[in-house]
Design brief:
alpha/beta; binds NADP nicotinamide-adenine-dinucleotide phosphate; binds flavin-adenine dinucleotide
Length: 545
């Protein structure tokens, strides 16, 4: 046990809830709790609101769910008044939107910024959480809401000599707020996931020389980003309520198909892929209804993209290295970017295929490959995150009998509905493992979770209950449901961060629930309506001070 008792004791206030994080989830939690008449206090490591959109200021950062959908649906006036300028909003525009929401609903006052939660202990006698921060705060609440983000803990690979590099080192997920210039610089980018593929074309436009260090190529669909004209925006807004209602069932409002890729002729298939490729965005993967479930169907889409790569990239060896061959399309998060493959036709861009020429180390002047050193002035790591569990397990969260969450989850994030885990009463997790989270429009997932949590607290208060936690059997059953949902898809066929495969030593478990937000929402609602089936509710012990 940590020497928690030697630290400051909390002030007298008992909050209804403490929220960790001030991104989309934390802000919505604060708003919804206040609307329900509940008190709350939030902590946020960053100096301001924004979450992912505060941290990811890398060039080219933008959403890949269309802006009209990648926004809150909880307030009709907000969604009618806010004007999105681009089909896929860039990071500054999304941050501006989040700041607007914080101002509009007066949410900043509920948060302490530049403050990281380091520990949280459940006090069974009082049925409260005692939360401690790196600034010495010690606060108590009845409920603890982890809105700490599924992609908020960045990961730098352990490459020998990294500390010796003389130039600047950045991670896309912790990008400096000061202006950075690539002009005249020799820049290296390590990583070609969603972040890398967005940054690479923009850096290439400014840098003297860009070297991309690629370990695994990804399927990249053109974004076809464009300004959002008024007519499109007005038409969408006229039916916003209807669109949001549909998104609550499907996550993101894509043009889904009810045809199999294998039941149409070659010409029809090609025409459908052509149409969607020209339209741009993730809609491409919904061209047929079995791309995520049938390897044969998937291969038709993957072959199409590989043919595009070979047609776009002039140097055949580079084109071949860019062709993904070791995983089905979409089994790693599909990437969406502008001019990604075209960038490799620029004279100042070089692709290094690390499978053929691995990184041996980093030297003061650049990256040391098996074939020799690549001299660099700047090194950008687009190497991803300790996803879904990282932000939770790095806090010393102790439940009943002092059990550590990181210890409980050492073989995988066992939980019920992705919302709670046994032995940790009154600890709610937002869009974590076991929920649809990263497989859907995350704001839709966030709103569903927060609404469910606030309703749950209200129901408990009305019934005079003080604690809620899953029955161990209910969470064992849910883990099985999550595994079975994953097994029905091709997601399990790739070494992706969905499985924790990017973190050495992390248990290999497919973390998100792949059964869809609609079915998931129904399950959560039924559980609540059925007296919180699968949860153990505890009566109020006594009135707390
Ligand atoms: P976050 O935005 O990650 O916020 C969590 C906050 O918690 C962070 O600010 C963090 O500093 C804080 N925090 C964590 N631990 C602590 C602690 N111990 N103490 C105090 N504070 C803490 N999703 C989509 O659906 N569509 C997209 O187009 C899309 N684009 C993305 C682009 C990028 C570059 C990235 C990285 C992610 C993207 N996502 C997208 C996923 C994104 O994570 C979610 O859409 C959403 O922003 C998550 O919001 P959140 O509030 O849950 O988490
Ligand atoms: P990521 O998908 O995990 O990609 C990390 C990349 O770094 C991969 O190419 C990986 O290669 C590479 N890498 C990791 N360690 C390496 C090493 N030691 N040497 C060489 N290469 C290494 O991370 P991300 O790109 O930041 O994206 C994470 C998630 O954030 C996305 O999947 C998405 O959910 C979200 N996101 C969304 C958008 C958007 O378009 N809206 C933008 C950015 C991020 P391997 O594949 O071989 O491991």
């Amino acid at each position: 046990m940590p020497a928690a008792t030697a630290l400051a004791e909390p002030k007298s206030q008992l909050w209804d809830a403490i929220i960790v994080g001030a991104g989309f989830a934390g802000l919505h939690a604060a708003h919804a709790l206040r609307q329900a008449g509940l008190s709350c206090l939030g902590f946020e490591t960053a100096p301001d609101v924004g979450g992912v959109w505060h941290w990811n200021r890398y060039p080219g950062a933008r959403c890949d769910v269309e802006s009209m959908q990648y926004s809150y649906g909880f307030d009709e006036t907000l969604q009618q008044e806010w004007v999105w300028r681009e089909r896929f909003a860039p990071q500054p525009e999304i941050l501006e939107y989040i700041r607007h929401v914080a101002d509009r609903f007066g949410l900043r006052r509920h948060f302490r910024f530049a403050t990281s939660v380091t520990a949280a202990e459940f006090d069974a006698a009082q049925a409260t959480w005692l939360v401690r921060t790196d600034r010495g705060d010690a606060e108590r609440a009845r409920f603890l809401i982890m809105a700490s983000g599924g992609l908020s803990v960045t990961r730098l690979p352990d490459i020998p000599g990294l500390g010796t590099f003389r130039g600047e080192v950045m991670h896309t997920g912790d990008w400096p707020t000061r202006p950075l210039s690539f002009a005249g610089k020799r820049v290296g980018v390590v990583g070609t996931g969603s972040s890398g593929i967005q940054a690479i074309p923009v850096i290439a436009e400014h840098a003297a020389q860009l070297t991309v260090f690629q370990r695994t190529p990804n399927f990249v669909i053109p974004a076809r980003n464009r300004p959002l004209d008024e007519a499109t925006q007005s038409a969408w807004k006229a039916r916003y309520a209807e669109h949001r209602a549909r998104a609550r069932q499907v996550g993101t409002f894509y043009a889904f198909s009810d045809r199999s890729a294998l039941e149409v002729s070659e010409a029809e298939r090609q025409a459908e892929y052509d149409r969607r490729w020209a339209e741009g965005g993730v809609n491409f993967v919904h061209a047929f209804n079995d791309i995520y479930t049938s390897e044969d169907a998937n291969r038709t889409a993957a072959d199409y993209v590989r043919a595009k790569i070979r047609a776009i990239v002039r140097d055949p060896a580079t084109a071949e290295a860019l062709c993904p061959k070791d995983h089905p399309l979409g089994s790693k998060r599909i990437c969406v970017a502008s001019d990604y493959y075209e960038t490799y036709n620029r004279p100042n861009v070089r692709l290094v295929d690390l499978r053929a020429d691995p990184i041996e180390g980093i030297a003061p002047g650049g990256v040391r490959l098996a074939s020799g050193e690549v001299p660099l002035d700047m090194l950008v790591f687009a190497t991803g995150y300790d996803a879904l569990t990282g932000a939770l397990t790095r806090i010393a969260i102790r439940g009943r009998d002092g059990q550590l969450l990181s210890e409980k989850w050492k073989n995988g994030p066992v939980n019920y509905l992705g919302l709670m885990t046994a032995g940790f009463p009154n600890l709610f997790i937002v869009t974590g493992p076991g929920s649809p989270s990263v497989l859907v429009n995350m704001i839709v997932g966030i709103e569903q979770h927060i609404d469910w949590i606030v309703r749950c607290i209200g129901d408990m208060d009305a019934a005079g209950q003080a604690t809620i936690e899953p029955e161990p059997q209910a969470e064992r059953d849910w883990v099985q449901v999550v595994n079975e949902a994953a097994e029905r898809t091709l997601f399990v066929k790739a070494n992706s961060w969905y499985l924790g495969a990017n973190i050495p030593g992390k248990p290999r478990v497919f973390m998100p629930y792949a059964g869809g937000i609609g079915p998931y929402r129904r399950i959560c609602d039924e559980v609540a309506a059925d007296g919180y089936r699968g949860f153990r509710l505890g009566a109020r012990v006594r009135e707390t001070a």
